[in-house]
Design brief:
This protein is α/β, with parallel strands linked by helices. It has helices at residues 17-30, 44-56, 66-75, 78-85, 87-98, 105-108, 118-136, 152-164, 190-195, 201-216, 223-226, 235-264, 273-277, 280-299, 335-343, 359-362, 365-373, 387-390, 392-397, 409-415, 427-434, 442-449, 463-476, 482-487, 494-504; strands spanning 7-12, 35-40, 62-63, 142-145, 167-173, 179-183, 312-316, 350-354, 377-380, 401-404, 420-422, 478-479. It folds into three domains: 7-193 and 479-504, Rossmann fold (3-Layer(aba) Sandwich); 235-299; 312-474, Rossmann fold (3-Layer(aba) Sandwich), CATH 3.40.50.2000. Helices cover 51% and strands 10% of the residues. It has a seven-stranded mixed sheet, with helices on both faces. It is globular and about 65 Å long. The two termini are 27 Å apart.
Length: 505
């Protein structure tokens, strides 16, 4: 096949399908010197609803994933081939497997992950890597744009692009309002780019005003998070969940049929069912349990008279079931590890942990009971439905120290000029560290807690650095509600799509 020149590959995966299609149309219409392609980076969609994929991208230039991956799986020994031919890529893939959500059943307790074999996942992801290498070798001049930074498929694609010297551009959330930043390294290069950019006095002035306005707000919860807070005693919410359960039953039944047709009837592919699509019956069962758990928490009485401790450390829990991105989490795969490392030093202070909104469905009652039994640990959740208790601003302001892995609360604490221990390297933290803030560790916290007179002032982020980060984000970021754009790109203003493309290209 002859090589095609000046190509833009638009990544499409799961929820970004519709936006990818919209971006494709706009590039084809306005960028006459470029030829767009839709690049599918996961086999799942093609296996379980290929017809839908074909209908979605009818008459579009599309590069499929499953057919390429399947060829390498049927051939066999994909991981050995990758190891022999591209040792560095193999090392990356193997490392990512270790932190993949399917390998963290001891932390996330998802039933479909219980008997998941890492070797099978490694074989599938090795086949995917070989597929990416083959696809990208077809093009002479190519660039890739994407709208997310998460999951193993993107990490593999990025590293293949590095080997091929291909630009892979995507957006990363600044964690401030709806500002997004451009990245060529799935978020790891953003801070380095920002600190080298100039800022005027007016930029700094605007950032100061924004921060002062932020501090004056009673509630600092982002809009998309407000909608996720559980609605107590809600008939409407309950009926919607039951409706969703019925629809998912139909969807999962269809998925199972297509999966069987595509994989389970093929002797060579059958063993890869789980890593390719998950275990659909068990996934469905786990999903149903999660929805029933939400209904239970909607209607369970919460007559809780909770009083915040006078002296506490605040630790907002991450999304454990999905939080496995080694680029940002500092190597901490579970909040339980951090709690265990901290609790032995909690003499005067309590550790107040607040659950992540996304864990309302996944957090088991048995886990919550275990948290509550730990000495000097207080557990609170969004579903107790009390703003005075769960208001993030109050929790940060009243704490002696906020501890985060890679969540937004770390930036929130910096904006409120409160002490914060950031264990991972989210985008804002990378900026802080590059600006001269020493990265603190749990050992620093341990040393401080052992002192007779504890002083957390050294854990504060210098205000001028926080100001310069916000100023840089406002000046060099792209402001849009990307989550809403992904959900419903057809409802968006055409100008937003055009500006987004211009920003990325």
């Amino acid at each position: 096949m002859s090589k095609i020149q000046d190509v833009i590959l638009i990544v499409a995966k799961e929820d970004t399908f519709l936006l990818s299609r919209k971006i494709y149309d706009q590039i084809k219409k306005t960028k006459k010197n470029c030829k767009p392609f839709i690049l599918l980076i996961s086999s799942v969609e093609e296996i379980i609803y290929k017809k839908k994929v074909l209908n979605t991208f009818d008459k579009y230039n599309i590069i499929f994933c499953w057919e390429g991956v399947k060829k390498f799986l049927l051939k066999g020994n994909a991981k050995n081939i990758l190891k022999e031919t591209h040792q560095d890529l193999y090392r990356v893939v193997a490392q990512q497997i270790c932190s993949h959500p399917t390998q963290l059943y001891d932390f996330n307790f998802r039933l479909q992950h219980k008997n998941f074999k890492g070797d099978d996942l490694l074989e599938v992801m090795s086949a995917l890597t070989l597929h990416f290498l083959k696809v990208l070798s077809l093009f002479e001049k190519v660039s890739i744009i994407d709208f997310s930074i998460y999951d193993i498929h993107r990490t593999i694609l990025l590293n293949v692009c590095k080997e091929k010297k291909i630009a892979y551009k995507t957006l990363v959330h600044s964690r401030y309002e709806n500002y997004w930043l451009l990245s060529k390294n799935l978020g790891s290069d953003v801070a380095k780019n920002l600190i080298n950019k100039s800022l005027s006095k007016n930029d700094i002035k605007l950032a100061k005003e924004k921060i002062n306005n932020y501090r004056s707000q009673k509630v600092i919860l982002p809009l998309q998070e407000k909608s996720a807070v559980i609605q107590k005693y809600s008939i409407k919410k309950t009926l919607n969940i039951l409706k969703t359960m019925i629809l998912r039953t139909i969807i999962y039944t269809k998925r199972f049929v297509f999966e069987c047709k595509e994989i389970k009837f093929n002797k060579k592919l059958k063993r890869f069912t789980k890593p390719l699509t998950g275990d659909i019956p068990i996934t469905f069962f786990n999903s149903t349990l999660c929805y029933l758990r939400v209904i239970k928490r909607i209607w369970r009485s919460t007559k809780i008279k909770y009083k915040k401790p006078n002296k506490y450390l605040y630790f907002p829990l991450p999304n454990t079931v999905e939080n496995s991105e080694l680029r940002f989490n500092g190597g901490y795969l579970s909040e339980k590890i951090i709690i265990d490392l901290i609790r032995k030093d909690l003499y005067e202070y309590k550790l107040l942990i607040k659950d992540h909104r996304s864990m309302i469905m996944d957090r088991k009652t048995q886990e919550i009971k275990k948290f509550k039994k730990i000495y000097n640990v207080d557990y609170i959740s969004e579903w107790i439905n009390n703003q005075n208790i769960t208001n993030t601003k109050n929790l940060i302001n009243d704490s002696a120290l906020t501890i985060v892995i890679a969540g937004t609360a770390g930036l929130e604490a910096a904006l409120l000029n409160k002490p914060v221990l950031i264990l991972g390297t989210p985008v804002y933290a990378q900026y802080f560290f590059l600006k001269g803030i020493r990265k603190k560790t749990l050992k620093d916290l341990e040393r401080e807690l052992k002192k007779i007179k504890v002083n957390f002032e050294e854990f504060k982020i210098k205000e001028d650095i926080t100001i310069s980060y916000i100023a840089s984000v406002i000046k060099y970021g792209f402001r849009c509600d990307l989550y809403d754009l992904i959900r419903n790109p057809n409802a968006s203003n055409k100008k937003v799509i055009k500006n987004l493309i211009d920003f990325m290209l």
